[in-house]
Amino acid sequence: MSEQLIGAKSEVLFHFSIKLSDGSAADSTKVHNKPAKLFMGDGSLTENFEKCLLGLKAGDEKSFELEPEDAFGQPNPDNIYYVDRSKFGAETPAEVGSIIAFTQPDGTDLPGLIREVAGDSVTVDFNHPLAGQKVTFEVEILEVNN
């Protein structure tokens, strides 16, 4: 039986690490030794991250350098909002550096980073925290099912 290569519809069990250009880890499944399961094409990874996996097989370990445009994109100024400070309560105070989940009209939560608090105005950034960052995507493929 030949080894299965990752294709457009594969189910993949793998470890990954995302590192910033300074070498610090932004995310890793190895921290808790819990590999990720991915169904290629399901939208849980960006298309560019998935392209890195195509053609790999169980046992492969690879490292990919991704420019911001190919990873989490550039920061979008349209994703920065100014919210009245009165919208924040005692349970969720508006403190610079805090990440707060904001409930969307459809009921889903969207995390926002408090960038600035000035008087009654709170600047909330809804860009991905790694937007604008060049990253290294390291993978270890554990299992491939087609």
Automatic annotation (TrEMBL):
UniProt xrefs under InterPro entries: PPIase_dom_sf, PPIase_FKBP_dom, SlpA/SlyD-like_ins_sf
Keyword Lipid biosynthesis listed: no
One Pfam assignment: FKBP_C
Enzyme class: isomerase
Residue span(s) of domain PPIase FKBP-type: 9-74
Entry EC no(s): 5.2.1.8
GO molecular function: peptidyl-prolyl cis-trans isomerase activity
Keywords on record: Isomerase, Rotamase
Reactions the enzyme catalyzes: [protein]-peptidylproline (omega=180) = [protein]-peptidylproline (omega=0)
PANTHER family: FKBP-TYPE 16 KDA PEPTIDYL-PROLYL CIS-TRANS ISOMERASE, FKBP-TYPE PEPTIDYL-PROLYL CIS-TRANS ISOMERASE SLYD
Family: Belongs to the FKBP-type PPIase family.
Protein name in the entry: Peptidyl-prolyl cis-trans isomerase
UniProt organism field: Pseudoalteromonas piscicida
